[in-house]
Predict the structure.
Amino acid sequence: MCILTYTDNTKLMKTTPFIPGETYVPVSGKVFDHHEIDNATKVAQDGWWTEGEFTKEFESKFKKFLGVRYVSLVNSGSSANLVALYSLSSPVFGQKALKKGDEFITAAVGFPTTVNPGIQFGLTPVFIDVNLKTLNMDVDKIEKAITPKTKLIMMAHTLGIPFDLEKVQHLAKKHNLWLIEDSCDALGSTYNGQMVGTFGDISTYSFYPAHIITMGEGGAIITNNPLINKSIRSFRDWGRDCWCAPGKDNTCGKRFKWKLGELPEGYDHKYIYSHIGFNVKLTDFQAAIGVAQLDKLPGFIVARKKNYKTLHAFLSKYPDYFQLIELSGKEDPCWFGCPIIVKKDAPFSRNDLTEYLEDHKIGTRNVFAGNLLRHPAYTSLKQKRIVGTLDNADIIMNQAFWMGVYPGIQEEQMRYVLDILTLFLSKYDH
């Protein structure tokens, strides 16, 4: 557990000693102080443990931070993706509603829960290779992948790096496709000065401890469309037609005056179901922690960018060994991690380096699943299409990894990381 004291918007002071070579430097972790604990304690004492006042406060502040109209909290980022996709299957969207057998376009590299909801619903995934400069989908291949069955583009901003939102948004509008931005890694990233997550029809966020802010578990779904928001709320809350908040009754003012489906007129609206939904709400304990985390978010963003800049500057000295991210100038990532591709002709492999770092108590991670199509779950998937080759996805699978930049990595930890990298690379520096 990583406990830190928050001091201002740009500075975080560690309260436990760091011992080089003994204390593990993780790639990610939760950064918190007494404010999160105080808020959670207040929820326990108040006795209102499902969605409550802290949920309302978080949603209000999150809306303001992102500049959006609607926020719905859920119990995880994976649930956020699930509900986001299913919400677009509502009959209220007419011919545009997702139906089993439709296709959705996604990236071959990423985390499974960006892809799984579509498969679970009954859509056919259409996989496209990625660009090695950004680790995001090669958007120039999207138009070739579109068929009359295509209804949706759903992909993530890999490691907080915004994908080409101009091109993707243009294609979505041109072909009348839904766009879901998986922004779970990208809270605080911007594209052309606009918050990532505010370009698509829906965007999702995760508040797992590894992410930009945390609730322990938790997630959010955002949209600016009131009809989509109503569908999101319904699928999130058992599929019900009613939109009353927990503990509230008769928000619509006509609780016993509805006539829906084949139910008798006046059937209690709280128990009328318009969709086959889920129950993936979160608790007010989670929201209470999230409220305290939101106050720290500006400082977290600054710290992540600073740590990335330090690592990137060091690694840039070794262009013969490493391929790093190349930005166009439109992207300003809030870095989830620092991605590195070890070049094929380098005198060492990705695994040589990551094992060395791990042996010296420095955490590393592969770029999530690498090429998803190489995993048992997806090799046996009968309904899928692949556009072109997945050569770059294989390169990421075999040669890429990322290092931590989260706010818990302070200057002394970063100095140690650079010292160990220097030791490793000195063996090959002639």
